[in-house]
Amino acid sequence: MNDKQTPDGKSNQPQDDNEKNSANATEAESAEIFKIAVLRGKRRLNRPGLEMTLAGFIAGMNVTFGAIAAAAVAGAIIASFGESHFIFAEFIGALVFPIGFIFVVIGRSELFTENFLVPTTTVIAKKARFPSLLRLWSLTLVGNLIGAIAVAKFLSLEFYDGVPAVHAVQHIQHVAEFLTLERDWDASFYSAIFAGWLITLMTWLLLTTDNTLSKIAIIWCVGFMIMLNKFNHVIVNSSEILMAIFSGNQNVTYAMWLQNNFVPTLLGNMIGGLVFVTLLEYIKVLYSQERWR
Question: For the whole prediction, is pTM greater than 0.70?
Answer without folding.
Answer: yes
